[in-house]
Amino acid sequence: MRIAVIGKGKMGTLIQSSALKKGHEVVGCFDCTDQEKLNVSVDMVIDFSHRDNLDWVISYTKKNGNALVYGTTGLEATDLEKLQDLSCFVPVFYATNYSLGIAVLKQVIEKVTPLLKEDFDMEIVEKHHNQKKDAPSGTALTLLEAMDPNHEFEHVFGRQGMVGARQKEIGIHAVRGGTIAGEHSVLYCGQDEILTFSHEALSRQIFVNGALKAAEFLENQEPGLYSMKELID
After folding, report:
1. What pLDDT sits at residue 34?
2. How many Å apart are CA 26 and CA 19, to the nearest integer?
3. In the chain, ranges of CATH 3.40.50.720 domains
4. Residue 150: is it exposed, middle or buried by C-beta count within 10 angstroms (0-12/13-18/19+)?
5. Could you confirm whether 132 is annotated as catalytic?
């Protein structure tokens, strides 16, 4: 494939080098300051940069007709609507986390929660490096949606002060420090027992590997919005 990478940071650089090793052609890494330089046709755009790039990436994609793998987190509802609209014209792959392990964890959580939610208290703890801008992580929010798709519980983002006895709620907690690539734990706390499902990312490479698998998956897809569920099913 001929690929354009959006973002010049650690993820963008790693995506570029990994794509080249897999035999793909990478025309370069781009951001909003040099978007005019992306003036060639590509098969695929991979964007793990910042939501500020979304509008011009969508404009380029609509004009060029390429597929889009999008992995930026911290999106607002209007941003998701833009991706949904774009998917009417080209294949779009969107996920908050491109780890295959997280994709499996999400499916596990969807099956386990209905069995435990009446008798167990549920919490999510996520840990990331000290440079991560959004909190809680997009992955934590994805796991929360998997646990509570019908919004039966109050979502409590951290606790402070005299909060009183626990109600019908799910707590979500963010830790930021050092160079933690990403850790997510889902806790089910019952009477005299605790069940924990955890995933630890040891490097950013796992997300890059998932992004490239998603790009290769999109090669033969019709326009539509795809996720990790389609990739692993």
Report:
1. 81
2. 7
3. 2-94+205-232
4. exposed
5. yes
CATH class for the domain made up of 100-201: alpha beta
Place of tokens 């499916």: 107
- The pLDDT score that the predictor gives to residue 233 is 82
Question: Where do the H-state alpha helices sit in the chain?
Answer: 10-21, 54-64, 77-86, 100-116, 138-147, 205-218, 228-232
Q: Read off the tokens for 232.
A: 């692993």
In the set 117, 132, 155, 173, the catalytic residue is 132
Determine which one of 106, 128, 184, 199 is catalytic.
128
Please write the tens of the pLDDT for every residue from 105-128: 999 999 999 999 999 999 999 999
pLDDT value for 33: 84
> Any catalytic annotation for residue 128?
yes
How far apart CA 32 and CA 19 sit, in angstroms, is 22
Average pLDDT, the chain: 95
Q: How many residues does the chain have?
A: 233
Rounded distance, CA 176 to CA 26, Å? 33
Q: Which CATH class is domain 2-94+205-232?
A: alpha beta
pLDDT of 34-70, one tens digit each? 888 898 999 999 999 999 999 999 999 999 999 999 9
All CATH 3.30.360.10 domain ranges of the chain, comma separated, are 100-201
CB neighbours of 106 closer than 8 A, spacing ≥ 6?
142, 143, 146, 228
